[in-house]
Amino acid sequence: MAVMHSTSEADGATRSGEEAPASAPWGTGAPGPETAVRLEAHGIDHIPEGERHGKARSLFSVWAAPNVSYLSLVVGAALVLMGLSLEQALWVIVVGNLFWAFTAFISISGPSAGTTGSVISRAMYGIRGNKVVLVVTGWLIAAAYLALNWSAASVAGIGLAGRFGLEVSPLVSSTVIVVIAAATIALAVYGHGAILRLYGPLSILLTLVFIVVSAFILGRADWSYQPPEALEGASLWAALAGGFAIVASAPLSYSNSPDLARYLPSRTRASAVAGWTFLGAFLPSVVFTAVGAVAATSLDMSDPEKALEGIMPGWFVPVFVVAVVLNTVSNNGLTAYSAGLTLQSIGLRISRVWAVLVIGVLGTAMTLYSILVFDFLTSVSTMLELVTVLTGPAMAVFVMDIVMRRNHYDGKQLLDQDRGGPFWYDAGFNWAGISAMVLGGLAAALFVGTTFWTGPGADAVGGLSLSIPAGMTVAAFVYWLVGRSPRAGLFRGNPA
To answer: pTM (2 decimals)?
Structure first.
C-alpha cells in the first residue's frame, strides 16, 4: 500500500496541471459510488464532472449536524455570565450568527473549481504564499478547534464515567478523550461519502435529543432575568462587542465550506449552494445558543455539564452525553477532514488518510492539555475571541476574491504549481493577498479586547473589541485595492 507518492508520480501530475490525487491507501484508489463505508478516493485533486453528483439541499444536514451543539449551549450561557441581560444576549446571538452568510458565500467556489478551499486560496496568496497562510489559518487553528470541541465532549464524558462509579483520574480522562478522538478521526478518514450519508440521520437524532434538553431548560427559565449589576455605558458596549466576537468566531472559522460542496455538479445554482449551507448552519446555531443563554437565567452555568445534568432525569443523562459525543464527532469530523486536505495543500506528499491522522494526533494532544492542565471555560472564551484576528481577514480575502473573479475558477489551473504558472505570481507570492492578511491581522490585533490581551485600539475606545470589523474591513479593502493594480496581475491566467 503506497502511503507516500513517489517523486516521479507527483512531478508528472504537476506537469500536467493536476496534482497527484492522494487517494485512500487502503482501497483500490479508483473512484466509485460514494458510500458511508467506502474510503474517499479523492484528495485535493480536481473532481471530474462525470464524478459530480447530488443536490445542493444535501448541504443542509451536513451543516446542521455539527451545529446542533453542546458548545452552542456553553457559548450562549457565557454571554449571560459576561453580564448581559437575556434580551441583549439574544440580539448578540442573532447578529453574530449572521456571519454564517460568509461561510455560505465562499461555499459556491467549490462546485465552480471542483477542488478544495485550501487549493482555491492559491488564487489569493500564490502557490508559495498560500502554504504559509494555510499553516496558520487552515491547520493550526483547525487543531485548536478540534481540541476545543473534544474538550467540551470530554468534560461530559468524564462526568458520565463518574456517574457509573469510575474514579475520575488522569487515566480515565485520557481514555475518554482518546476514544472520542478516535471515532472522529475514523469518520474523517472515510471522508466525503461517510459525511454525506451519516449526517442526515445524525442531524435528526441530535435535534430530537437537544429539543428534549431545551424543554427541560425552558421549563425552568427565568424570563424576567436581569443581571445582578446591570452593565451601562462603556462596560455594556465592551460586553456586547466581546460576546459578538465569540459568537461570530464560529462561522468565520469555517473556510472549509468549498470542500463539502466540491462534489456538486458545476451547473448547480450558486444561490442554492449558499442558501442551504447558510440555513443548515444558522438555524440550529441560533436556536441552541439562545437556549444556552436562557439556561444561564436559572442555572449555574459556570459548570455547564453539572448544571444541565442536574435538571434531567437520571435515565436521560447518558442519552444526553452520547448526543454530545456524537455532535462533537460530527463537528470535528468536518474539521479533521478539511485539515487533512489542507495539510496536502501545504505540500506534504502524504495520502489524505495520513494527513487526517497527523492533525488528529495534534488535536488530541492539545485536548489532553486543555482538560488536564487548563480551565475549560477560560479556554473557550479566550480562544474564540483571539482566533478572529486571523480568521476574519482570511474570510474577507476569500469573499472579495470570489466577488472580483465573479466565482470563475479553473480547478486544473489552480493545481498547476509550476514556476510561471497562472498562480505563481511574483516568485510564488500574490502580494495582494499577503498584504491584505498582514494588514488585516494587524488591524484586528489592535482592536482585540479580551482578558488575555487588549490591543491599544481597544484600549482607546474603552476596551471595546472591534477586531472582527476592523480586521475584515482592512483586509477586504487592501485586497481590492492592490488586486486591481495592473502590476499585481491578480487575474493573470484566470480572468473574471
So the answer is: 0.84
